[in-house]
Amino acid sequence: xxxxxxxxxxxxxxxxxxxxxxxxxxxxxxxxxxxxxxxxxxxxxxxxxxxxxxxxxxxxxxxxxxxxxxxxxxxxxxxxxxxxxxxxxxxxxxxxxxxxxxxxxxxxxxxxxxxxxxxxxxxxxxxxxxxxxxxxxxxxxxxxxxxxxxxxxxxxxxxxxxxxxxxxxxxxxxxxxxxxxxxxxxxxxxxxxxxxxxxxxxxxxxxxxxxxxxxxxxxxxxxxxxxxxxxxxxxxxxxxxxxxxxxxxxxxxxxxxxxxxxxxxxxxxxxxxxxxxxxxxxxxxxxxxxxxxxxxxxxxxxxxxxxxxxxxxxxxxxxxxxxxxxxxxxxxxxxxxxxxxxxxxxxxxxxxxxxxxxxxxxxxxxxxxxxxxxxxxxxxxxxxx
Amino acid sequence: xxxxxxxxxxxxxxxxxxxxxxxxxxxxxxxxxxxxxxxxxxxxxxxxxxxxxxxxxxxxxxxxxxxxxxxxxxxxxxxxxxxxxxxxxxxxxxxxxxxxxxxxxxxxxxxxxxxxxxxxxxxxxxxxxxxxxxxxxxxxxxxxxxxxxxxxxxxxxxxxxxxxxxxxxxxxxxxxxxxxxxxxxxxxxxxxxxxxxxxxxxxxxxxxxxxxxxxxxxxxxxxxxxxxxxxxxxxxxxxxxxxxxxxxxxxxxxxxxxxxxxxxxxxxxxxxxxxxxxxxxxxxxxxxxxxxxxxxxxxxxxxxxxxxxxxxxxxxxxxxxxxxxxxxxxxxxxxxxxxxxxxxxxxxxxxxxxxxxxxxxxxxxxxxxxxxxxxxxxxxxxxxx
Amino acid sequence: xxxxxxxxxxxxxxxxxxxxxxxxxxxxxxxxxxxxxxxxxxxxxxxxxxxxxxxxxxxxxxxxxxxxxxxxxxxxxxxxxxxxxxxxxxxxxxxxxxxxxxxxxxxxxxxxxxxxxxxxxxxxxxxxxxxxxxxxxxxxxxxxxxxxxxxxxxxxxxxxxxxxxxxxxxxxxxxxxxxxxxxxxxxxxxxxxxxxxxxxxxxxxxxxxxxxxxxxxxxxxxxxxxxxxxxxxxxxxxxxxxxxxxxxxxxxxxxxxxxxxxxxxxxxxxxxxxxxxxxxxxxxxxxxxxxxxxxxxxxxxxxxxxxxxxxxxxxxxxxxxxxxxxxxxxxxxxxxxxxxxxxxxxxxxxxxxxxxxxxxxxxxxxxxxxxxxxxxxxxxxxxxx
Amino acid sequence: xxxxxxxxxxxxxxxxxxxxxxxxxxxxxxxxxxxxxxxxxxxxxxxxxxxxxxxxxxxxxxxxxxxxxxxxxxxxxxxxxxxxxxxxxxxxxxxxxxxxxxxxxxxxxxxxxxxxxxxxxxxxxxxxxxxxxxxxxxxxxxxxxxxxxxxxxxxxxxxxxxxxxxxxxxxxxxxxxxxxxxxxxxxxxxxxxxxxxxxxxxxxxxxxxxxxxxxxxxxxxxxxxxxxxxxxxxxxxxxxxxxxxxxxxxxxxxxxxxxxxxxxxxxxxxxxxxxxxxxxxxxxxxxxxxxxxxxxxxxxxxxxxxxxxxxxxxxxxxxxxxxxxxxxxxxxxxxxxxxxxxxxxxxxxxxxxxxxxxxxxxxxxxxxxxxxxxxxxxxxxxxxx
Lengths: 385, 385, 385, 385
Description:
The first copy, chain A, is of the alpha/beta class.
C-alpha cells in the first residue's frame, strides 16, 4: 500500500494547544500516506516556530506565515504535495486560495468559509486549478456511514421519507469562553468563527452526514436558533425542520448546551422499506431494519458489509475503530485522489467519496440559509444548490 | 391497601379485538382497587353482548349502549363508581358527558375529544360536577417519569432550556389500514380519529410527557406534518418546533412510518445545570447528568429515587416494571382521588399527578394548533392555555 | 378468556412486609384467573390476622395456621381450588404436603425444600395425588425465554455447546441482615433458608433458566462457594463449572455481593449454528445470531416470534412487559392445568411449560450437589436425575 | 512530544496477509515515536522480500532472516533501537533471545513463549541485558482499563472480592482452519501456537487484563477445557475457576465458538465498597458503582478521569478511541522506557505500566497451569509466581 513514496504534507494552523491540528497529523500518519515536512502552525511567529520545532520540522520549512510557505514550497523540487488548513474558520478562505494559486492540493477543515460568496470563489478557483480540494467532514470517513450510504443508495430501505439527525454536546453549558479555554474561545467568537456558532461548528457536520449517508438533498429549512448562555455571542442551540428535494422530511438538532452529551452525532433514516440508525459514539455498529423483520445489528467488518464499508476499515470486527481512523480515511482517500491526479489516471471510486470543495460550499450555503430562516422567525428558506 | 372495598367499574368500548380495553382492565386489576361490574363494550349490540359475557359481566349489567348503562347504573344502589371510556376518539366526548351528567366519575382515554370546543365543554362540565375526570396519558404513570419530574421541578438540572421529545413507531410503514387490521383502521380514519392521525394517536402522548416531566408549558408551535403512505387519509409523520413559555426551545417528532421503532417514546430535557434522558422502552432507567460530572444511571427503586418515584412502583430494582404497571398507576391514583372525594378529604398529593380533564383539553388544543400551523406552512401558532 | 369462574386461591405466608407474597397476589390478578379468598399469611397469629384483614379476607377464611386452612377449606363447598405457598423455604415442604393431602392444588415458591429427601417425598406425593403442583421459577414465564427455548429446541442454533448463565446482585454487599431488614434476615439464616444462601435464593433460578431455555440437563458440577461478608452464615458468591449430559459445558455465577447489579440474571447459549443472549433486566429483547450472519434483535411480539412466545405475552412490541407479567404467566398456565384436570381434558401444551414439582426437586438436587462439590474442594459431583 | 528523533524500529514477522503485523505498524506510527527501517517479515525469503518492498524498506535492511537482521543492525551506527516480534508463537522465544543478545530492545507479542522454561530463560536474559522488553497485552493500553486500575488500586471499590473476566469470540464456530484461512490455520496448529489454542490466543489476554486492572494475582485455577469443533487440534472453549492470592474468587471464560461475539473481552471487578465493569467493544466507557449509590458511567476524557487514564488518551470525550490507539499506547510507553534507558533517567511512571517480560512469563505460567488442571479433571493447580 505504501510502497509509493509518502506525500509531502504542509500544515497551516494546528500549533500549540490546538486540538484539531493534532488530530489531522495523527490521521495523516495512520495509513502512512503522508509525511509532514512543512508548516505555518500559528498566527504568532514565535508560537509558530516553537510549534514546528516541537514537531521536528526542518527550520527552513518551519514558516512564520502560510503565504511564505506557499511561495517557498511551490518552488522547491521536494515541495509539499498538499497542505492541510486547520485554522479557525476565518482564515480558511484566504489560505486555501493562496495554496490553490501556488498549485498545491488542499485539505481544508470545515466550515469551508464564513460566507457563501467566498465559498463560491473557492469552488471556482479549485475547479479551474484541477487540484484536489478535500474538506474534512470527517464523520463521512466512518466505515458504517459509508455502508449506510451504500445500503440506502442501493435501495435497501426503499424511498427515503424521514431523516432525523442530531448532534448534541454539553461542553458549552456554561460561559466556558470567559475562562479563556482556547477551543471555546474561538468557536464562540464571531471574528474567528463567522456568524454561526454551534450551527457552524457541529450543525454543518450533521447536515453533511444527513446528505452524504442518505443521498438526499435538503431543499429548504425552517430554523429556530437560540443562545441560551448569557453573554455568549453566537448560537448554542439549533432546531431546524428540513424538507428534502425528493419530498422527504426531517429535523436537525445541534446543541452545545445539552449536558450528558459529549459528541453525540446520530443519524436515522427511514424509507418505504426499512430504516437505519447510526451513532458516532458507537461508530462500529449500524442498525438496519427491513420493515416487517427484526432489527439487524450490522458491525464493521462483520457479516453483510459491502465494498464501501470494507474500503474504509483496517481491523476485523470487534476491534473498535474510532474517530482517528475515520479521519484517517479522508486523508487516505485524498491521497488516492492526489496520486491519481499526479498519475493522470482515474482514482479508486471508493476514494472519490471524500468530501470536496463543493460539499464544503454546500455546508456554507446551509449555514447561510439557516441563519436567514431563523432571522425571519423560522420562515422556510431555500438552500442554495 | 385494599382493605377498603374495591371501586365498581364500568367500561365503554374495549370489546372483542380491542387492544386498549384489555390494557385498561389489567391496569384496573393490578393494584386491586377496582372490580369490573358493568359494560357497554361495543357499538354493535351483539358484539357488545358477546364481549361482556366473555368478561363474566352479569347479564343485566352487560349493556347495549353506554346511555343505557349510565341511566341504569346511576340508579342502582350498587351502581358503578366510575366509568372507563376506551372507545375510538369520536365517542369520547358524548360518552364522558353522559356519565358526568349521571354523576359518575370518569376515566377517559386520550385524545380527550376531536375538537377544542368539545374539550372545553367537558372541562366546564367536569368542573361543575365536582367529579374526578382522569385522562390516561399513561406514560406519566411510569415511576422514572415521576422521578424526572421531581428532579426537574426540584431544580436539579437548573433552568430548563432544551426539551427534545420523540415518539417513533414503524407499524404503519405500509397501508396497513387497507388490510382491515382493526387498530390501523380506526386510527387512520378521520371519522373515528378526528382530524389528526399520528399526531393525535401518539404525538399527544409526547406533548403531555414533555410538559408533565419538565413542568414547562408549550407556548407556540411550528409544524410540518406529512402523509407518506399513499392512500392514507391522515398524517403519519409529525415534525414540530416548540417554544416554551419560559423561553425553552424544543422539538417534537412523532412518526408511524419509522421502521425499526416499535413504541420508542423518548424524552430529553436539558437545563443550565444538567440534563435527563428517559426512554419508554427501557422505562426502569433514567439518566441524570449534572454538568461537569459523569452521567448517573438512576434505576427504579434504586439508590437516589425520591418520593414521587417510590409512590409509583411495586418492586425492588432490577425487577422490571412495564407498560401495564404504569397504566395501573393512573388507575390507582384515580382510585385515591375518587375515594378522597367520597370521603370528603384531601387526596394523597402524589396521586394528584394523574392527568385530568384540563390536561386532556390541553392536548386537544395542542393538536389543533399543530394542524393550524402545518396548514399555514409552519407559521408559529400559539397553543391555547 | 375469563368467562369461566375464577379459581379460588388461598395463600400461606406473604403477610405484612413480605415482598414475594405481594408479587404472587398481583401475578394471580393480572390475567384474572384467580380470586384470593383464604389465607394463613404469617406464622404469628396476630400478624396473620392483621394481614388477612388488610387484604379483605373474610374473617372465617383468615386462618391462624395453614393446617387449619387446609382442613377447613377442603370441607367447604366453595373451598379453595389451589394454594400458593410463599413462606420462607423451611416451611415449603410441610405446607405443600398438608395441602396435597387435603386434595388441593399447589403453587409453591422455590427452592421446593431444603433437602433432597423431602423434595423427593413431595414428588412422590404429588404424583400419587394427581394434583397440579407448580413451582414458581418465575423467569421461565418471560415470553422471550419461552421463545429462546422454542428456538433452541427447534434446532435454530444447532447442537448446544456452551451455556453461560449468571445471576449477580449487589444488595448483600454489607451485612444487611444485621440491620434486621426482613428480606436479608431470612435469606441468610440457615434455619429458614436451609444450607444454601445465594445458591438457593438465586443460583437455583439461574440453574432452572439454563436448563429450561436450552433443553439440556446438567450432569455434573464443580463448585467454589464463598462467603465474603464477615459474620454471614451462608454463601454469598457462587462459582460453578457445569458439564451437561449432551457434552455441552458451561459456567454459573451467582452473587449477592456484586455492587452495580440489581437482579442481573443473564443467559447465553451457543451451538454449532448460532447463539442466543437474554438478560432479565431487558426482558423484552432476545439477541439471536446465526453463525456467519449479523446479530438479530428479536423483540417480544415483534417480527419472528413463534407460538411459545406469543402464548406468554399480552401487549404489542415496544410496550414493555416485566417481572409481574412473567410471574403472572406461571399463574395463568397453572390455571389452565388446574382447569384441564378439573375438566378431565388435556391442557394447552403451551401451558404445560410451567415448572412442576419435579423441576422443583431437580433444583434441590442441584443445590445439594453444589454444596457437596464445594465442600470437596470443587470435585466434580453428579446432579441427581 | 516528538521533537526527539523517532526510534528506529525493526520487525520480525508481520508480512503479507498477517493481521497483527499491520496493527503493530499502525500502532507504532500513531504517536510518531517510531520509524520502521528494517524487517525480516516472513519465514519464506521471497515473501519476506516482497513484504519489505511493499512497506518501502531499503533493500539492505529487508532481511531474509531475523538472525541476519540482528547481526547486521547491531553493527550499523543507525541500527534499529528496538525490534517488534509479531510472528506465530513458536518463534517468539528464539527471536527475542537473538535480539536481546544483540543488545536490541524488544517488543514481543503474547503469549511470550510456548513453555514456561523458555519464558523463564527470557526473563533471566532480559534481566541481565538491562534492555526494555515489552509484551503486547494490548488491552492494558486502553485508557479506561488504566483508569479502572487506578480506581481499584486507590481503594475506590474496597477490598476486591469477585473478579469475572470473559473473552468470547465466534469466528471458529466451524473448522475454519480447514479452509486455509491464515489466521485460523496457525492459531489452531500446535506446531505454531504451542499446546494451547483459544487459551493461549485470547485466554491469556483475559488473564492479564484481570490481574492488571485489579492488582490481584491468581493463586490457583480449576479448569475445564473443551474442543467442540470436530477435527480441531487445540482447545476452543475455556472455563476456569480462579482463586486469587488475597482471597478473591473469580471465573474466566474464553471461547472461539460463541457466535454473536466478535471480540467481546469484558471485565467486572467487585469489592467491599463497589464495583466496576468494562467491555472492550465499548472501550471508552467504564461503569463504576459505589455500593449504595447509582451506577456512574465514566467516559474517556470525561469528568472524573485521573492521571492514568489521561496519560493514555489523545482525544476529548465522545470522540471514540479504539483498538489501534490502545495498541499505540503500549508503543508510546515502550518508547518512553527505551528513551529513559538511553538517557539513564527514570521513566515516566505512567509509562511503566506497559507489560514486560515477567508479565509475559506469568501468562505462560498461567497457560501451563490451566492445561495441567484441565488434564487433571479440574484439580486446583497453582500458578507459578
